[in-house]
Amino acid sequence: MEALLNIIYYIVPFIVLLGVLVFVHEFGHFIIARSLGVAVSDFSIGFGKELWSRTDKHGTKWKICAVPLGGYCQFLGDADASSSTADSAVAELSEEDKKRAFPYQKGWKKLAIVVAG
What SS3 class is residue 31? Predict the structure, then answer.
């Protein structure tokens, strides 16, 4: 019984606080990217299995995932959540999409997006 109370009193608030911290951090990347014209394809709180998602009018998929110990913003042109690019994925982008894709942005825009988190 005491172990259950420890979970409730310590671990649950820690996970909630971490979730809020991750949201604020990732939202910094998100809001600067969007304001600079870079498309954000995914905004995720947590990792692993997707528990809930919604796609907004700008095409961003907002997700809550099963393991609430982090999060990420995935930009158009990213091959994965670590912002690495796959040559095949980038090559398939239209000229219009390339204007909004992270790999094709000027250095100062990339820096602003990375630092904003």
Answer: helix
Give tens-digit pLDDT for 32-53.
999 999 999 999 999 999 999 9
Question: Which residue is listed with tokens 């420890």?
Answer: 6
Q: Which residues are catalytic?
A: 26
Q: How far is CA 46 from CA 17, 52, 94, in A?
A: 13, 11, 30
| Model pTM score | 0.84
CB burial of residue 7 (10 Å; 0-12, 13-18, 19+): exposed
In this structure, the chain runs to a length of 117
Q: Record the tokens describing residue 80, joined without a space.
A: 């994965």
CA 117 to CA 24: how far, in whole Å? 8
Describe the crossing of helices 107-115 and 12-35 by its angle, rounded to 10 degrees: 160
| 109 Cβ contact list (under 8 Å, min separation 6) | 36, 38
